[in-house]
Amino acid sequence: MNPMSPMPPIPASTLISLSVAFGVGLLIGAERERRKGSGPHRRAAGIRTFTVSSVLGAMAMLLGGMGLLGLVTAFVAGLMLLAYRRTHTDDPGVTTEMALVLCCVLGGLAVTEPALAAGIGAAMALLLASKDRLHQWVSSWMSAQELHDVLVFFAVALIALPLAPDRFMGPFDALNPHALTLLVLLIMGVNGLGYVALRALGPTRGLPLAGFVGGFISSTATIHAMGTRTRDQTASLHSAVTGAALSNVSTVIQLALLTGLVAPDVLVFLAWPLALGLGATVVYGLVFYALSTAGNTDEQLPTDPGHAFDLKSALGFTAFLTGILLASAGLHDWLGSQALWPTAAVTGLADAHAGALSVLSLVAGQKITAEQAAWPVLIALSANTATKALVAFQSGGWPFAVRVVPGLLALVGAAWMGVLWG
């Protein structure tokens, strides 16, 4: 080859990788520079060292692959070990040393996954910059019980959920361990949402807001969470009922959105039923909200809001819904899929949206007309309210159930009145 021939152009991907590595080093290094200190006992690594480490990792990956990256990372770790031996008596922490090694690894990652490397780098810089706030949050704002609840939640999310098999098994092939574990996690999350709202805003405003937001996740789980709060006496009864009612508002909104996305023509026949059901539920929730504010119940509540969630309660609720799921699967197997109305009712026992979706998909496939789908969708919604009534009793007992069930009946009754008037 002619030594005077021009060098081939550098690929754009290589330039992007080096730019990301450079940026990650600058970002994390800038944060560490602020905490480096000065004088003879200052930390060994600052903005320049972090940038060099990140670019060095990228160059190692480009020139020698994983093998050379491993050697370079070990070299950086060895240098930081020597630096730590010099400064550990003044500052026993190893955050800077660990961050520098990570920076080198992120530089190598930027060669193969630049977007991922950039995201991790930004997240790490934010984490390092939030040191004081995180320490204050854990030591001052968060109780030991709350920290325990957070750890349990992430143990289920990061250990149990990935290990659960994602396939159907058991009677009628109706049980999916991964989906059931996700349901446990969902219940814990909804309970945690209610707990945070309870602490931040108080029961009168917090629980209605948590109920409305939680309803978009799962109205049934939200009703269970509100009932558990009243049974543990950590929430006013009227506020919890308001939250349960507003979770049904979310159910109707979701059902309308689902219908509009899958089979828009069906909305012509469901507009009045869903509008009347939505209006009746909103009015019912506002009545109990007025009762909660009139009674000034916040001052009568204990200062300790209790647990963020109860794992045993979440498991019990999941077992309860599993029984309903098995019963509906057995009925579906007995009735067959050709019976449209019974199938919608059976499927709706477990989830109103799943029952409606099974019907709407038939409309989208032009197997039934939009008019024929209206009644089965409302049947699925009605069947799901029966499940919610059982959940209200199971979680909150009679005092909670007798206040929630009339709201469910108002929703279903208004929706069917809309069918008759339409």
Task: Give an overview of the whole structure.
There is one protein chain. Helix 1 packs across helix 2. This protein folds into 2 domains: 126 residues, no CATH class; 280 residues, no CATH class. The protein is an all-alpha fold. The longest helix has 52 residues. It contains 14 helices and no strands. About 2% of the residues have low confidence. It starts with 11 loop residues before the first helix and ends with a helix.
Helix and strand pattern: HHHHHHHHHHHHHH
What is the straight-line distance between the termini? 84 Å
Rg (CA only): 29 Å
Q: Strand fraction band?
A: under 5%
State the total count of DSSP E strands.
Answer: 0
Tell me the number of helical segments per DSSP (H or I, 4 or more residues long): 14
| Gross morphology | elongated
Structural class: mainly alpha
Which stretches are low in confidence, meaning pLDDT under 50 for 5 or more residues running? 297-303
Mean pLDDT level: 79
Largest sheet: none
Helix content: over 70%
Q: What oligomeric state do the depicted chains represent?
A: single chain
The count of domains is: 2
